[in-house]
Amino acid sequence: MKHVSILITNDAVLASIADPRIIFTGINEFLEAAGKPPLFKVQLVGLSKDVKLHSGLFSVHTNELISNISKTDLIIIPAMGGDMRIAIKKNEEFIPWIVKQYYQGAEVASLCVGAFLLAATSLLNGKECSTHWLFAEQFREMFPEVTLVDDRIVTQQLGLYSSGGATSYWNLLLYLVEKYAGREMAIIASKVYALEIDRKSQSPFIMFNGQKTHEDEPIKKAQEFIEANIAERISVEDLAMKYAIGKRHFERRFKKATNNTPVEYIQRVKIEAAKKQLESGRKNVNEVMYTVGYTDTKAFRTIFKKITGLSPVEYRNKYNKAA
Fold first, then answer.
1. pLDDT in tens, 89-123
2. CATH tag for 2-205 (out of 3.40.50.970, 3.40.50.880, 3.40.50.2000, 3.30.2350.10)
3. Which of 10, 165, 272, 284 is 20 to 30 A from 242 (CA-CA)?
4. Segment (H or E) for 129
């Protein structure tokens, strides 16, 4: 039987505690209904017996203190609310226990921004990780030794798992169910809980907001120029010349400041503008394409799908009620 330890961290998001408990205990029920033994021993574990969440509105009673658990098989780190630096500080007592359990053979899975606490253990250094797209820049700033994969919903390396934003953690939970209980159980769970199995990308949900918290003023001005001129064809050479910086040096500075190359930034700004028009306007795809500075239909469609995971038509049909 697999021992699943769901951490009741300080400032935990309640749903990201309840949902993993629901799915793993649910699998036990499905197995028992089929005349098979349960597979998971699910426990809520914490630093104290009683943890107050959401400004004291809810109180969660733990099954066990981490100090009493010498060995577990799977640790679930829930999402946390508030300032991530403060949340990590409030939960730093969990860190040595997580590290010890990992080196004893446990696997560790973080849900949404629970990735911040997982990254704070240093176990992710040199590895890939997912988290909520909204926190991507802060994550990169705090954990430069971790490779953040913006668009991926499920990331796994060497027994360390992480998920994309918000409820996309259900896809990680299904992934873990399939690993431990098999594909049949994962399919049953996806149907019972009405989940889309094998969803791999959170790209359609990402809203691009250029990173401007850096101190490189010429690069910040270049970003503002790009955003103010989405209908224009802007080259890297033009930008470098406009701000009197050599092309290669400009590209290096731009990438360091924004985590995007100038070309990637231009594309993301244009596609973000196109997304907004497709969501609420009445223009067709070609009309939108021209307003954001593209004249090649194939190129526009290719870049749009690369960034959002959907074609322009699919995106419009998904988000535009009139469509």
1. 999 999 999 999 999 999 999 999 999 999 999 99
2. 3.40.50.880
3. 272
4. strand 128-129
- Tell me the C-alpha distance between 104 and 106, whole Å: 6
What is the β-pairing status of strands 64-65 and 40-46?
A: parallel
CA angle 238–311–234, rounded 5-degree value:
5
For residue 316, count CB atoms less than 10 angstroms from its CB and return exposed for 0-12, middle for 13-18, buried for 19 or more: buried
DSSP 3-state of 137: helix
CATH superfamily of 217-319: Homeodomain-like (1.10.10.60)
Domain segments of the chain as ranges = 2-205, 217-319
Q: Is the pTM of this model over 0.85?
A: no
- At residue 299, the 3 state secondary structure works out as helix
